[in-house]
Fold:
Amino acid sequence: MTNEELMQLAKEVSQNAYVQYSHFPVGACILTENGKVYKGCNFENSSYGLTICAERNATGSAIADGEKSFKAIAIYSPKMKKCFPCGACRQVLSEFQANEGLDVVLEDENDGLIVYKLNEIFPEGFKL
Ligand code: THU
Structure:
């Protein structure tokens, strides 16, 4: 699975986001070390703090399927170029990165892809 294909899936799933309150859809798609792919979108709640981000939704699906080593995640919002994961999602993703690290794949201002390592955008995360 290429980064382009991963981003295409993130775009598709962003259309399912439930964003009644923010009107800010996000889609995320994770590629695991075993070559499996898991999608997630954000879903909000009238009790705002219960909102689940796209990245954590995708993470939950991967974990439920027994996948714990993530190679890449593509993140997309139609409302924002370079839609970086929030701090909470960075911490959650840091738990499941593959040995070679996790590639965070975003769409840039020219509709191309830009890739960051999670460690680069989230150094010194909390770890037990
Ligand atoms: N959101 C995500 O899904 N992922 C992020 O990393 C940042 C924020 C969602 C949460 C909320 O539904 C909306 O974007 C606006 O904050």
Notes: Residues 1 and 65 are 19 Å apart (CA to CA). The radius of gyration is 14 Å. The first helix runs from residue 3 to 14.
